Amino acid sequence: MRKEKLQVGGILYTVKWRKSDIIVDHKLCFGSHSSKDCTIEIDARQPSTRQHETLCHEIAHAIDNVYDLANNEHCISLLGAGLSQVLKPNCFNFVERKPNEPKRRNVPKNTRARSRSQKKLPTA
Ligand SMILES: [Zn+2]
Question: All domains of the chain, ordered by start, with CATH?
Answer without folding.
Answer: 5-118 (1.10.10)
